Amino acid sequence: MAASTLSDPLCPNPACVYLYCVTSVFSPARTHASYDGDFVFDDTEAIVNNRDVRDTPFWEVFQNDFWGTKLSHKQSHKSYRPFTTLSFRLQFWLRQSLISQDYHIINIILHSIICLLTLFVYNVFLGPKEQSTSFYATALFTVHPIHAEAVSGIVGRAELLCSLFTWLSILLYNHTIYAKDMLREWVTMSGFTICITAAMLCKETGITAIGICAIYDIVIVNKIYPIDIINFFKRVSFKRADKFSNNFVKYKSTLLRLAALVFIAITLLFLRFSVMGFSTPKFQSVDNPASFMDNTLLRILNYNYIYCLNMWLLICPVWLCFDWSMGCVSLITSYDYRILVIIIFWFMFGTLIIYMFISHKNKTLRYVIMGFTVLICPFLPASNIFFNVGFVLAERVLYIPSAGYCLLVVIGLQKLTARFSLPKTLLLAYAMLIVLLFLRSWIRSNQWRNEKMLFQSALNVCPLNAKVHYNIAKNAADAGKVNLAKLEYQEALRLNPKYAQAMNNLGNLLKDDGKFSEAINLFKQAVTLQRDFSTAWMNLGIVQSALKQYEESETSYFMALQYRSNYPDCHYNLGVLYLEQKQYDKALKAWINATRQKPTHKRAWTNMILLLDDLDRTEEALKMATEALKFVPNHASIYFNVANILGKNGKYDEAEVQFKQAILRDSASPMIYANLGVLYHRWNKLNAAEEMYKKALQLKPDLHSARNNLQKLYTLKASIK
Nearest Cα to 375, choosing from 413, 346, 349, 338? Predict the structure, then answer.
């Protein structure tokens, strides 16, 4: 085989290529290992706790970031991905419930479609004569473990949708180039623009598809090499104007298309920055420590070391971690052996770049340039070159770049085949690589099934990562393993003494144990480190209230509301504080604010109804209950309280109806049956009362009020006889 071509004698049958590719797309590494997994890690904030996924007005999705925070808010990460959020919302609307398996299955389907589209994109880049190369690269892309985070983590939907529209935009741009008439050209170009916009509204990196298309047009379609562009600019000042005009005429259509690409890019970037209010997000030093280094040289060295790690994860995806911040990658602050790693990396990378400039002009060079472009272009937004990002390293951002890497690997293997005539040996090596990556994908996808497995797997990779210990602690606390949670929070604080979130959570555990003084110290440290930490301010207020430090507690609540005005739980706790001080009007006002900000705040509604009843404002209490049921129609406690109010006022028929409504919504509550028994007791329906008391005691044998009332009932019955 000639060195200048990529024809492959190892897989001559195109039908086999396509058949095997389709089967490999639906690899069990993706479909079985994580399809029934839980919501894990960032899924909780982006989906489970994100009101944009459930019930906010539709257009608010376009005003909020990916996590449901207003883009104008200073704490917003500015990650604008409304189409991804809408895909989550559509699934919730169809099922009226958050079922994690549904979301995982859609991710798997999307990955499968993307793998098929990857084959078509490779065919566009390489041409119809290189279908076997496209197949080998696609198979490698399909099973690469670096995709586990994007596919098995539901928030990875952003990468998947972005990739889907990126590939579609490239295919449409190819149709634009070869359109046979003006109408088809305009239609396909319009489709291309729509897909690019959609990709960008799924994830910001979608705009890099414009760069890929531009390089494809220049290098593959027009066969213009990097050295040609350099030579052109060297000679253009010495050439006559008519020569320049001839070149312009020759490449007129290409220049017009490139001008259109530039116009689309500028327009989309302008719109994107206008949505952000022309401001960049503010991150903490723990998110991306290298960005906060004062020494420019050291900052550049650390960035380059991170590039090395990204490349290593593509080459050898053994160490995979859900989070690489907080000590996972220690900073280079002086002479370090890792500087040698950077030198080796740039030697290899520089060799590839030099090859693209000095190699013979042939197909192989063009294909290498395209692989390099797909590897580099989509990674640029995460490179810290244009702006600082909020992470050290994220495997999900390598989803599209891995397609470029896979293409370069296959081109390299086929060059070796041509040079050394070892087709069987290299095919075996390739097959072993596929098997190894497949197995690693299976293992890694399985680790994403639940948070316990995911966080534990991270300890093997980043044992010094405070965030890993923080998440293990959080998971343990949710599972009721309080002692383990305390130990892990303490370890997180040992590794990062300025970890405000860990202080807040550990303080909560100590508060629940009644260790108020220790909890207060932690909350105060947290708000000192992070002045706008609203949750810590609120928790500080709760503990101060428990210690009867009412003035300090009120101040803490106000501080929380100062930094986070839309904070219904804080308004609720402020109302509880006023209730303890017998400032009833202030308590009602605080709870009203809580329900205005969160109409489904059940505790606030319940407390208002009870307080109004205690104040003998019965009619207001009943009106409040009617209003509450508009927002929480299935909350048994409201029916229960209304029934008690009606019963005390002698409206037995109406009270009975309300008790039965409460039972329909909570049939396992002994208090509802006990109080309904009291109603029947007063109503002189003694048999019905006896039945309700027994039902309450069946559910809770130690319910003394029901047992005492039942004894009184038996005494009454005996006296009647």
Answer: 349
Alpha carbons 619 and 335: distance in angstroms, whole number = 77
Residue type (1 letter), 652: Y
Determine how many CB atoms are found less than 10 A away from the CB of residue 352.
14
- Residue 261 has, within 13 A of its CA and on its CB side, a CA count of 23
Report the pLDDT value the prediction gives residue 672, as an integer from 0 to 100: 93
CA–CA distance, 634 with 655 (Å, rounded to integer): 17
For 362, residues 6+ apart whose C-beta sits below 8 A from its C-beta are: 4, 5
Helical ranges in 203-337 per DSSP H: 209-215, 226-235, 241-250, 252-275, 296-315
Alpha-carbon gap, residue 369 to 359, rounded angstroms: 11
Residues 565 and 413: their CA atoms lie apart, in Å, by: 59
pLDDT tier, 21 (very low <50, low <70, confident <90, very high otherwise): very low
Decide: pTM greater than 0.85.
no
Query: Within 10 Å of residue 593's Cβ, how many Cβ atoms?
Result: 21
- Say how far apart CA 299 and CA 29 lie, in whole Å: 38
Token reading at 347: 């030697």
Is residue 523 scored above 50 in pLDDT? yes
- Residue burial 60-72, b: 16+ Cβ < 10 Å; e: rest: ebeebbbbbbebe
Q: What is the pLDDT of residue 3?
A: 39
For 127: left if phi > 0, alpha if psi spans -120 to 50, otherwise beta; the answer is left
3-state helix, strand, coil split of the chain in percent (to 5) is: 75, 0, 25
Nearest residue to 207 via CA among 168, 177, 162: 162
Per DSSP, 64 falls in state B
User: Which residue in 390, 522, 328 sits closest to 75, CA to CA?
Assistant: 390
Backbone φ and ψ for 153, nearest 5 degrees, come out as -90, 125
Q: Given pLDDT bands bounded at 50, 70 and 90, which one contains residue 208?
A: very high
Measured from the Cβ of residue 242, the count of other Cβ atoms closer than 10 Å reads 8
Per the listing, tokens 């590039």 go with: 307
**What's the whole-number mean pLDDT along residues 334-347?**
90
| Helices and strands (DSSP H and E) totals, the chain | 34, 0
- Which residue type sits at 701? P
For residue 548, pLDDT beyond 90:
yes
Whole-number Å distance between alpha carbons of 96 and 587: 34
Is-contact 695 659, C-beta < 8 A?
Answer: no
Phi-psi region of 384 (alpha: psi -120 to 50; beta: other; left: phi over 0): left
Which of 292, 286, 284 lies closest to 326 in space, CA to CA? 286
Residue 549: which pLDDT band, with cuts at 50, 70 and 90? very high
Percentage of the chain modeled with pLDDT above 90: 59
Q: Is 201 exposed, middle or buried (0-12, 13-18, 19+ CB in 10 A)?
A: buried
